Each structure stands twice: as structure tokens, then as C-alpha cells.
TrEMBL record:
InterPro entries: CHP02678. This is TIGR02678 family protein. It comes from the Bacteria. It comes from Actinoplanes auranticolor. Pfam families: DUF2398.
């Protein structure tokens, strides 16, 4: 056994749960995600620190009442936004306020009032073109309170008195006093590089070069394990040959099962880790109208691709991922201070670029927007009572959100005019879907 070697069979299930908790919640405090998690992590701290470093290249840091898993990033991702308590993804304004809150708290003492925090953030935001924080603006106050609530939910700020909602309604009539968890503040913002010294967001990605064959193989094995954990499905065509070799090997499945208690499912096109323990933040199929529509769309797409009596589905080459990656890099780098050089080429070949060179003509079935519209209309007609009036009134939004969910799970790939059906869609071929009807009384 390469991992959890010192963990007894009686404790293995608890150890695997601790691994899953850390992977889902890289920041753990005395109260986040609950009061039992931090003691569980501390119980296995030594084994966790060694195994997570060797298996994935992650670093576990424990300071005071805080545990932080510092991950190694292989690629930029947009599918894991911070969200407010109402489930609304953070926009640029909220991310900016969150960063400025952390900067202020790093200089603060052990307590701070909400109005003091807002005043300090407003001063810093006023120096940033296009940002600002106007206490008289309801939109600005709500965005600021969302950032504060995100910190409060994770135990970085602990409410000692008052209410942030009252301040959001009227800054002059409400106030809140917070205790500041200094350990959590310092652990939360730990960039791998000094930000003043980087010229592009790509500098935050791991770009260390291996100096020997053994080191290269170890790095490829870690990249393979990270890919399985970080992505709902990993296609062999999306990774380099070295990583693909490890994905196909038997050791990967045994290692991940020993660490997480989850089993690897392998198919001709790729692999996925089957979530039987509910550790993922989002699951598919899931609950809710969007998830129900998504799985029904997946069934319709699978049937369309495999229908022997229907019109043959047109196949298209997979778009060059480098174009989307460069566009995303440019959007992020646009937030750097003026005068800083943006998007400099590192001169290295990334894992994705190596995969592109090996698979220039990988073609997938095209599912047109018109088919998706018709399929969504048919879903609403057939399962009408399972979807609320708001979805019937706006089927376009239901289709967009359902396709977005399928995209996040690697089932489809958006292209102009529709989506490309990826191999995961084949799991739902000839599936008989049942939708839970809404209770009226």
C-alpha cells in the first residue's frame, strides 16, 4: 500500500471521509463546514499531510483552529464560482469586495464593526477605476454584504453583536460587530507567487519542470489523480499521452479507492470517479427542475445520436481549446493594474496543448440549437406538472441552464449553433427517465 499505510482497517473509513472533506472544503475552520470536521482532520493530520502531498502534490497546512489544503492547479476553471447564501454566483464586483475585505482584515485587530470594514473597503475601492463602494447605493451594499456573508459562513468572521442584514437595509440604522479569526484570514489568501511579481494569471499555475525521468513520471501520475478528482469525467483525448497512460493503469484506481473510498469507472473514451458518498458539491443527475431537465435532455441527445432510423447526425471537429483558454486568460489579466504586461507566453507546452497536437481531428456529433429548443418544449409538454409556471413561461432559460449543467459535467461542449455530444452522453442511451411530479396540495 502506497497510501494510508499507517491507517488501520478499523480507521480506514474515517480516514477516507477526512480526505473527502478536505477535497470538498479546502478551507476548514472551527465552524465550517461544521464543528466536527476540524477535529477529524487533526486526528489524521500526519497521514493526510504525507498522502495528499505524494498523491496529488497538495499541501496541508494547520494553524490554530484552521486547516487549509493548498492545491496545485493544472488549468484555469470557471465552473466553481463563489456563491452567496441565496445561491447567486459572485460577479467581479463581489470578488473585488471579497479581496479588499481580506486585505483590510489582514491589517485589523481581533474585532471589527461592519461599518469600519465597509469604510476601509470603500477607501481602497475608490482607488480602483470602475469599482468604488457607495454606502448610499443599494446594489453596492448588497454586493458588499454578500462578500462579508461568505467570510462569515466560513468562520473567518464571527458575529458578536448586531446584524449585517439591518446594515444592508439602512447603514445608518443597523450595525454589526465581528470577531476576526486571524488564523483563517491568513490561511485563506495564500497565493503561490507574490502577486506584485506576476504578469499574467498563468503564473499562478504550477509550471515546475521535472529534472529526471522518475520525477516526470511522478508528476504525470499526480496530474492524472488530480484530473480525476477535479473533473467530473476525464477523456483520454483531453490529456497528454503521459497522463493518459496513468489513467489507463490499474494503480490509479487502487490508489484513489484507498484514499477516498470511491471507485473508478473506466470506459474506452475515459474515466470518472463514481460519487457514492455524496462528497461532490454538485451531482448529476441531481434534484431540482434544472437537473431534471438536463437529464431528460441528455436522454434526448443520446437517442438522437444513436437513432438508426433518423437523419444522420453531422459530426464536427472539436474546437481548439487554446482559443478559449487564451480568451479566458485575457479576461482575467484585464483586471491587472495598468502598465503591467499581460499574457506573456511561457514558452512551455501545456498538457492541453500536447493533447491538441495528438488529436487534431477528433470529431463529435453536433446537436443543433433547434433540436435543443424542440426537445425542451417536448419535456415541458410531457412533464408539465413537474416544472413550475416560471419555467413554462421561459423555456429558453431552462434550456440554457440545463445545457450549462451538462457542460459542467463534460456531457456536451457548446459550439456556435448548438452543442457537441461528448461520450458521457452515451450513458443515457435508451434510458427511461422518470420525473417526480410536483405536489399541488
Amino acid at each position: 500500500m502506497r497510501f494510508a499505510a499507517e491507517v488501520s482497517d478499523l480507521e480506514l473509513a474515517d480516514y477516507q471521509r477526512a480526505v473527502r472533506l478536505l477535497l470538498r472544503h479546502p478551507l476548514i475552520t472551527a465552524t465550517w463546514p461544521d464543528e466536527k470536521t476540524l477535529p477529524r482532520i487533526r486526528r489524521f493530520a500526519a497521514d493526510l499531510r504525507g498522502d495528499l502531498s505524494e498523491a496529488f502534490g497538495y499541501r496541508l497546512e494547520l494553524h490554530g483552529a484552521t486547516a487549509r489544503l493548498v492545491r496545485t492547479a493544472d488549468r484555469l476553471r470557471t465552473d466553481r464560482p463563489a456563491v452567496s447564501r441565496t445561491g447567486r454566483p459572485f460577479d467581479r464586483q463581489r470578488y473585488a469586495y471579497l479581496s479588499l475585505c481580506l486585505a483590510t482584515l489582514g491589517r485589523a485587530g481581533i474585532q471589527i464593526t461592519l461599518s469600519e470594514l465597509a469604510e476601509a473597503v470603500a477607501v481602497d475601492a475608490g482607488r480602483i477605476t470602475g469599482l468604488g463602494l457607495d454606502p448610499d447605493s443599494g446594489a453596492d451594499r448588497r454586493a458588499f454584504v454578500d462578500a462579508v456573508a461568505w467570510l462569515e459562513e466560513r468562520g473567518v468572521l464571527r458575529l458578536a453583536d448586531g446584524s449585517s442584514s439591518a446594515w444592508a437595509s439602512d447603514p445608518g440604522a443597523g450595525e454589526a460587530l465581528y470577531d476576526v479569526a486571524r488564523d483563517a484570514v491568513l490561511a485563506l489568501f495564500r497565493p503561490p507567487r507574490v502577486l506584485q511579481h506576476i504578469d499574467s494569471v498563468t503564473a499562478l499555475l504550477d509550471r515546475s519542470l521535472s529534472s529526471s525521468g522518475n520525477a516526470e513520471r511522478r508528476a504525470a501520475a499526480q496530474a492524472a489523480r488530480r484530473a480525476v478528482l477535479e473533473q467530473p469525467v476525464v477523456y483520454y483525448d483531453d490529456v497528454s499521452a503521459e497522463v493518459g497512460n496513468h489513467l489507463r493503469g490499474q494503480a490509479l484506481a487502487a490508489d484513489l479507492f484507498r484514499l477516498t473510498g470511491l471507485r473508478l469507472e473506466r470506459r474506452a473514451e475515459g474515466v470518472l470517479l463514481v460519487d457514492t458518498a455524496g462528497w461532490s458539491a454538485e451531482r448529476f443527475p441531481g434534484t431540482g427542475s434544472v437537473a431534471q431537465a438536463a437529464v431528460l435532455l441528455a436522454v434526448a441527445i443520446a437517442d438522437r445520436v444513436s437513432d438508426p432510423d433518423g437523419r444522420r447526425t453531422r459530426r464536427m471537429p472539436v474546437p481548439d481549446p487554446a482559443e478559449a483558454r487564451e480568451k479566458l486568460i485575457g479576461q482575467i489579466d484585464a483586471g491587472l493594474p495598468a502598465g503591467v504586461p499581460l499574457g506573456l507566453d511561457s514558452g512551455e507546452t501545456t498538457e492541453d496543448e500536447a493533447a491538441e497536437a495528438e488529436n487534431p481531428e477528433w470529431r463529435l456529433p453536433l446537436i443543433t440549437d433547434s433540436f435543443l429548443r424542440e426537445a425542451t418544449a417536448e419535456i415541458l409538454h410531457r412533464y408539465g406538472s413537474a416544472f413550475g409556471a416560471a419555467w413554462h413561461a421561459d423555456p429558453g432559460r431552462l434550456r440554457t441552464e440545463a445545457v450549462g449543467l451538462l457542460t459542467r459535467f463534460g456531457a456536451v461542449l457548446p459550439v456556435p449553433g448548438g452543442v457537441l455530444a461528448r461520450p458521457l452522453i452515451g450513458r443515457y442511451r435508451s434510458t427511461v427517465a422518470q420525473v417526480r411530479q410536483r405536489t399541488l396540495f
